């Protein structure tokens, strides 16, 4: 198994055994079952190339209705959370410049994700922590439709934070580390 294959396999495992199993995204299970998630590895060490890969993924999502969402996994080049945030800002700007605002939305994940108003050790940060830095491309129309049909979508973040605090930071950190070691 190549390093890329291992990274993608661990990311799929994270989605299935953490995101879906803990119901952090109540819409992810359906897409896992349908096989409609595109998983890709991109190189974060070459920002222009990584940004081009993001736009290519947007174009492919636009052209492929059976693929609902795309996870762009970035195992190298954006290990530092501040670098990742800088890259994320450029990615969001580029998507707007390319006409994708309102069509696709970026969700952000990083192994060291920390919300601006949270302490780094707060288990609630694990709502956006992943084995590697990644960008999650979501279709805005699908997201709006799913949220409209879901009871109390505003309560999802609070419910997730409470659940992760219940699990605790140490077990969450061990589980994330174990995925990276596969």
Write up what this structure looks like.
By secondary structure, this protein is an alpha+beta fold. It has 7 helices and 4 strands. It has helices at 3-20, 28-34, 47-63, 81-97, 140-149, 156-167, 169-181, and strands at residues 37-41, 69-73, 104-109, 134-139. Strands 1-2-4-3 form a 4-stranded mixed beta sheet, sandwiched between helices. β1, α3 (47-63) and β2 (69-73) form a beta-alpha-beta unit. It is globular.
Q: What number is the mean pLDDT?
A: 94
Unreliable stretches, pLDDT < 50, 5 or more residues? none
Q: How many strand segments?
A: 4
Work out the helix count. Answer: 7
Oligomer state equals single chain
Strand ordering within the main sheet: 1-2-4-3
Mind describing the biggest β-sheet?
A: 4 strands, mixed
Structural class: alpha+beta
Radius of gyration from the alpha-carbon trace, in angstroms: 16 Å
Shape: globular
State the helicity in percent bands: 40-55%
Pfam families: DUF1415
InterPro entries: DUF1415
Protein name: DUF1415 domain-containing protein
Secondary structure layout plus pairing:
Blueprint: H1 3-20, H2 28-34, E1 37-41, H3 47-63, E2 69-73, H4 81-97, E3 104-109, E4 134-139, H5 140-149, H6 156-167, H7 169-181
Helix pairs in contact: 3-4
């Amino acid at each position: 198994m190549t390093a890329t294959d291992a990274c993608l396999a661990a990311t799929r495992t994270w989605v299935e055994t953490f995101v879906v199993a803990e119901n952090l995204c109540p819409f992810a299970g359906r897409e896992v079952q349908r096989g409609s998630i595109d998983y890709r590895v991109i190189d974060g060490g070459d920002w222009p190339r990584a940004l081009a890969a993001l736009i290519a993924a947007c174009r492919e999502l636009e052209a492929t209705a059976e693929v609902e969402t795309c996870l762009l996994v970035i195992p190298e080049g954006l290990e530092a959370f501040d670098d990742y945030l800088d890259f994320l800002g450029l990615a969001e700007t580029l998507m707007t410049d390319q006409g994708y605002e309102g069509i696709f939305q970026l969700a952000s994940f990083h192994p060291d994700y920390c919300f601006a108003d949270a302490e780094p050790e707060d288990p609630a940060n694990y709502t956006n922590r992943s084995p590697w830095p990644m960008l999650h491309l979501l279709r805005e129309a699908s997201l709006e439709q799913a949220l409209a049909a879901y009871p109390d979508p505003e309560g999802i973040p609070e419910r997730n934070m409470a659940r992760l605090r219940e699990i605790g930071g140490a077990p969450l950190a061990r589980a994330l580390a174990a995925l990276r070691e596969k």
